[in-house]
Amino acid sequence: YMALFVLEQDQFGGGQLEIIQLSDILQSLSIQTREKLSNEKFRINIPLEFRKSNELDHINAPILLDHDKIRYRSDILSEQNHEELNELNLTIQQVKKYQPELNKYTMIILNNQKYLHGRTKILDHRRHLLRVRFNRTCPYDVHSIYEKEKLFPEYLTFSNDFYDYLQNQHESLQEILSLIVQQYDQPTSLGEEIRQTFRFNSKIDQIIKQLNVYRPNYQMNSYRPDLMFSQGNLFKINGKYSFQPKICEINARFPFNGYFLSAALCSTDCHNRYSRKSSRIIETMIQASKFDLTKRMFIVKSKEHGYDIHLFQQYWTKKSSEQCLIIHPNDLKIENNQLINQQTNFIIEQFILELHQDEILNLSNEVLEYFIRNNEINYINDLRTIFILHDKRLFSLLSNQPFLYSLLNNNQQETISQIIPKTFVINKLSNYLKDSIVHNKQDWCIKPNSGGKGENITIGVDVTSDEWSKQLLDSTHEQWIVQEYFGYVQYKSMNLCGMLLCFNKHCFNMGAIRMAPNKIVNISRGGHYILPFVHQQYIHCMNDKSILTKEKLHEQLLELKTTDKYWNQSVYLSSSGGSGGKRLFFATDIQENLRQRQILVNMMLDKDIISDRDICLNLFQYGNIYRSFEIFNDFCSMANCTTLPMGADASNEDILEMVEYFKPNVLMGSPYRLMQLALYLEKQEKNDIKFEKIYFACESLDKIKQDYFKRIFHCSIYIGFYGSAETGVYACQSSKYSSTKIYLYPKELVQIEIVNSKIIVTNLIRKRNQLVRFDSGDLGRIVSTNENSKYGLIEVFCSERLILIGDDDLSKSHIEETMKQTDVTEWQLIIDYVSSRKTNQILLLFRYVKSDTNMSNETLENILKSYLQKFFANQLTNLSEELTLQFEPIEFDQLVRNKTSNKLLKIIDRRF
């Protein structure tokens, strides 16, 4: 399908859309022409805008498909003087054309294979139509093979460091594996060590040696290292489950297993870094294998049921004009120096091997010789890959440091040794090492050297000492391996196993992750699978893992607009209130934003902070992309409690009317707006207004306001909420911590660090625009709790330093502490330079609203000066050249407020 959306129509009558039904064309074409257009292949050039590869600029295909669909554009056909094409073009000119009227902002959707469309000459250069090409459906049904119910709906998130780490590991691994295969037949000590490690029988040995002679340009084709998420501290899953990856084995027999699954499921999210590579897995493998879509494809298989190979068959059937046939290995024969399927007598030019090693060895010598010597035949996997890379004895070489040293430089050796578990072939164990393994079975497992699906694996920790010794000393197990065993990192009580998808030099990184409650992780044995996530392009963090400041974040937000064309699509936009400096706009995924709020509400319900019995009066600010009002409405809806959404701009008279009518028990708003309401109620002598709880945010609620609210609202429980536009609201107080600075936060939502008393926040649930190690601008400490608790406690002290004079600094906490020494209703500090010419002299202007006290302005100001002195080593009178103090008594409505949030700006720094 395609769609045309009219942004601006041609005002002069040109650019008229014309549509022709294919059915009208077919009725007018001769039978002979229809047959030729259906069966004959034409060279069709691929328009530049639709090319996915520089290597593919055309296809050879019929014009008519299935006799009732068409693929036709006269300008991209190479053959112009063709009898059938001439008849088709003449028919197109003669049949009836439909001219739908498309006005501005209308859309038409067409089946591009059932209709031909064109337009008349454009007369108005302002005409603008948007053409939409719908994404094609996946050419195979992944859930026809893999049960949809086994797919977990969420992601496992990983860092970009982990993604890059696997890419680097693949580079080293690919080089080592290639060298091992190439060195196998060499008359060197290295070649001898490789041969002695594998000890293949004479038939396999000769196959590998002959392939190195007749096919010297070895291509590994498909190989899939399995990744075990073992216990360690190298990386994290979802920001909290620490792990170290280990490659425990390599799957190289069945070339597509896991690839189609990952290509289908990991390629659907444009914000997921895995999607970019996953979307090209299958096409890349087919192109790299040099398979010809215009020729028949064969799959040679017998006893293996298979998974993804059936998806390959679906794919080929839809992508190619030729068949994809499954044949039994016994049906292969050589005739006239050609490989033939003796059931159909079809010539086989390309095929997929889906055979076990013993099935390959049971092929006739004539067929095997043909595989080895005939370079015209095209197949995967290479037999060397199947016999060497799939053999677990390979790991005794990969974990052998002296061996690696002779293959690679020292840096690469160290790189690969980090991810490979120590492995030994049992018959090469020294007596000392064998004895150690017998007595430390908990650290080891025994595996057959070939095979797969976890068959016949013995894990030391799961068996008795007698059984372990029996397995290790069994004479039939001499060619098996003993490998280091590591405990799994679990997710939802399940063990995890990833797969590194590789093909030749291509690494598609990690595919779908398998999950199972058993130590042998296998979907065929009842396991599940889950998808990995790494943000595609943009994570708000520092590349060197240092702390992200608000200033740096602001730079990144501006850069994001130029690097990500989707930055403002499908997002929830939050605006900072402006108290931290420049106004910021932060984008989060809409669903992730709702999930964050739900997690916080779940905690509030769990801790009796809110209940479905509450009736909440919402007086928070809204408008101009400021979200406080909306946030608290959402909290109430998610908690299934009633909200009265009045907003900060509602008149006090209307608010009083709602209070008297609905009798709300929870009052919500900024301390400033609540103070306005309290002053009004006191003036109206309304002494019967009572609230059980007050929810506040945006500003702190000091002791003076708390006492005042207790008198006016008859309320003594004050629940503060904590967060920012960047992090979202992620913490709140409970009744237990009312009137303190201690907040509860869900550990599944955020990770809190304290670095030099700074509160550093990492949001754990965001996948789009992740926020990592963000400096919130406040100081605090972690309050010790039970490690197994779902919730953490953080005490918030104050914000950062405001001014620095010599060796002395003045922070927001110093100012707040100073202002508590006087009985003022509200205060505000303006920091500026004395003049634009004297930027070395700082002005501190204290503006204050006096309470009902008889204290004179002079006395009040002297108290403030005296208390400020304690924060300076030098006398304030001696700092007159650097610091000027001024005081200004004002009325409550003269306080400067942010125009967006209506938030009281306690400290206004005009120097920047």
TrEMBL record:
The major lineage groups are: Eukaryota, Metazoa, Spiralia, Gnathifera, Rotifera
Q: What is this protein called?
A: Uncharacterized protein
- Tell me if Ribosomal protein is a UniProt keyword of this record: no
Q: Which domain of life is it from?
A: Eukaryota
Kindly indicate whether the keyword Oxidoreductase belongs to this entry: yes
GO MF annotation: an example: oxidoreductase activity
Q: Which InterPro entries match?
A: ANL_N_sf (IPR042099), TauD-like_sf (IPR042098)
- Keyword entries, A-Z: Oxidoreductase
